[in-house]
Amino acid sequence: MVDIFDEVNEDLRAERAKRLMQRYGGLMVGACVAVIAGVGAWQGWQYWQAKQDAAAAAAYLASLSTIESSPVLADAQRKVAIAGFDALTAAPQDGYRTLARLQAAALKADGRDLPGALALWDQVAADSGADPLLRDLASLLWASRQVDAGDPALLEARLRPLAMPGNNWRSLAQEQLALLLLRQDKTDDAKTALRKLADDVTAPGGVRGRSRALLDRLGG
After folding, report:
1. Are 141 and 65 in a shared domain?
2. Would the pTM of this model clear 0.85, i.e. be above it?
3. How far is 78 from 61, CA to CA, in rounded Å?
4. Structural domain for 69, as ranges
5. Of 48, 111, 194, 204, whose CB is crowded by the most CB atoms within 10 A?
């Protein structure tokens, strides 16, 4: 009797499976095809992404080698390097796009194209897809290149967040703020800021040394 019931149950299961396949077979096959296609598309995207990364890395290193080929860049070399980095500013990879903008900005600043450099630093600082560390660096460079002539209120607004505890560029931003105070003839406030920097053991040695030297020039 047990065997008979088992056979009946198997027949019922087979019949239900047959009806399910007749009713939903097309959907099941479609779902399988969709999964396979999805896996294939994902693998294809990964392959394409790897090729894009490799191409961006090669282009970045090629432009970098132009800079490093000579201790003093001729104008022609600078233009070639800037063109190479400019081409990478449209790259889909955030990392290379950001680094390329920073490199191009530095070259433009050294080549006396300050407006072009400021525009690139501003782009990096405003790029939400860029690494926060590099965004802050771009803001610092943007401000430091204008500390002697830019709008004091605007410069202070850009530097203050960078000078807060915990920021990686805190000491350098505080140094720029001290220079901004000097430019505005706020000598006493500048001295106070410089003393703090000179005594700050967490500040880089260069920052402490420059602060002490400037304090000596100001009469302590």
Report:
1. yes
2. no
3. 15
4. 60-145
5. 194
